[in-house]
Design a protein that fits this description.
Layout (H helix, E strand, L loop, with lengths): L3 H9 L4 E3 L1 H10 L4 E6 L8 H15 L3 E6 L21 H7 L3 H5 L8 E5 L1 H4 L4 H8 L4 H5 L2 H8 L6 H16 L4 E5 L3 H13 L6 E5 L25 H8 L7 H8 L4 H10 L2 H16 L2 H16 L16 E3 H7 L6 H9 L3 E3 L2 E2 L6 E3 L5 E4 L3 E4 L1
Parallel strand pairs: 2-3, 2-5, 3-4, 5-6
Antiparallel strand pairs: 1-6, 7-10, 8-9, 8-11, 11-12
Helix pairs in contact: 10-11, 12-15, 12-16, 13-15, 15-16, 17-18
């Protein structure tokens, strides 16, 4: 029998809503081994702390002996989930999808026990089943029902296009639940419509409806928008300890407690005690330590904190900074900045230089076209925390 406190924690900690809670609670007490589904579309190469909120809840189910099913949406990624989008998501080609999902399992393995995890790819059925099954699926939902969702209503009011593929996306996600026989599906609160559609489609195909559990949305580094690779406000699970710690130190103070609750193993009463006793900087440092420790090690967390102190508090140059191979003897500041690989465009590099974020050989350069004599072993700083040697 599962201890009562385990069931209470599973159903309440970092959980927004459970549908149907009484039914799921009864199933958990019965000792039945449930199939718990969580789907991720490989629209970017990295899993981040936002994904980890649901993955940590999956791990709770897994630790209690239930079967976790990680659904990789390599077919639905070609459409793009419209949830929370103010515009049509750019479709991905097969090459991009394969590249993106190359490291997904290793990232998920930082939280889940992959040996006990069932991994499914929805291309394995969508690529094989014919038009007859598609017609059956299309009969499971209604046009009016899909258009009532809030994000579509906003786009209609703004006279923005909605493609038929986007209208079908919730049906495809719901059909995944049919194929893997999900008893429970997890997702963020922005996924509620899609998760409920899974119940409807299971019912249409004569199956018992899955229970639904939603977890909170984690805001990104900007403190406003959902953590997202496409926005650039994310902290990746595979990032280096130094990068992870540095990004955590940049989150708004108002989000620190939420990050503690959603991203660390600390109990809520411990978080309350820390929040009430530590000044903001020390509290954020403790947060950075806990998160880096979780995804790397205690040693890595200590080293990352020391490295941060060197750079930002003591203004020291970190050790083992990467070297750039520059053949030219003279190079414009903007061209040198592009050699670092940090910028997607020259306009982005120009903006940072003009704002004073470019320093070479102990001199701040604000003219993007300034010609620099490339010196051996000179230090280049780009932004606050990116260092290179030439």
């Amino acid at each position: 029998m599962i201890p009562e406190e385990k069931i209470r924690s599973l159903l309440s900690r970092n959980v927004e809503e459970v549908i149907e809670k009484d039914h799921l609670e009864h199933a958990l007490r019965s000792g039945k081994k449930l199939r718990i589904k969580f789907g991720i579309d490989p629209t970017s190469p990295d899993l981040h702390l936002g994904h980890a909120v649901a993955l940590n809840k999956l791990k709770e189910f897994q630790d209690l002996g239930h079967k976790v099913v990680l659904l990789i949406g390599d077919f639905t990624a070609r459409i793009g989930d419209p949830s929370g989008r103010s515009e049509t998501r750019k479709p991905l080609i097969e090459k991009e999808i394969k590249k993106n999902m190359g490291e997904y399992l290793s990232h998920a393995g930082k939280i889940l026990n992959l040996k006990k995890t069932e991994v499914a790819y929805n291309s394995s059925w969508f690529a094989k089943e014919g038009i007859e099954q598609f017609v059956q699926l299309a009969m499971a939902g209604t046009f009016q029902q899909v258009l009532r969702r809030a994000d579509f209503k906003k786009r209609i009011d703004a006279d923005q296009d909605i493609t038929f593929l986007e209208l079908l996306y919730p049906l495809f996600q719901g059909y995944d639940s049919v194929k893997i026989k999900a008893d429970v599906e997890l997702g963020g609160t922005d996924q509620t419509f899609n998760l409920l559609m899974g119940r409807r489609i299971q019912r249409h195909f004569g199956m018992k409806e899955q229970d639904v559990m939603t977890v909170p949305i984690l805001e990104g580094l900007d403190g406003v928008k959902k953590m997202s690779k496409s926005i650039g406000n994310y902290i990746g699970l595979s990032e280096s300890p130094e990068s992870m710690f540095g990004k955590i130190m940049s989150i708004p103070d108002g989000l620190v407690k939420k990050y503690f609750l959603l991203c660390t193993e600390l109990e809520p009463d411990v978080v309350d005690r820390l929040a009430g006793s530590l000044p903001p900087k020390e509290l954020k440092e403790r947060l950075g330590f806990e998160i880096v420790k979780k995804y790397h090690s205690v040693h890595a967390a200590n080293a990352a904190q020391e490295n941060f102190e060197k750079i930002f508090s003591r203004k020291e140059i970190p050790e083992n900074i990467p070297a750039l191979r520059i053949a030219a003897k003279n190079l414009a500041a903007m061209d040198l900045s592009m050699e670092t690989g940090l910028f997607k465009s020259k306009s982005e590099a120009r903006r940072l230089i003009e704002q004073g974020g470019f320093e070479y050989d102990n001199t701040v350069i604000k003219d993007p076209q300034a010609m620099l004599a490339i010196k051996s072993n000179a230090v280049l700083r780009v932004g606050k925390k990116n260092f290179f040697r030439t």
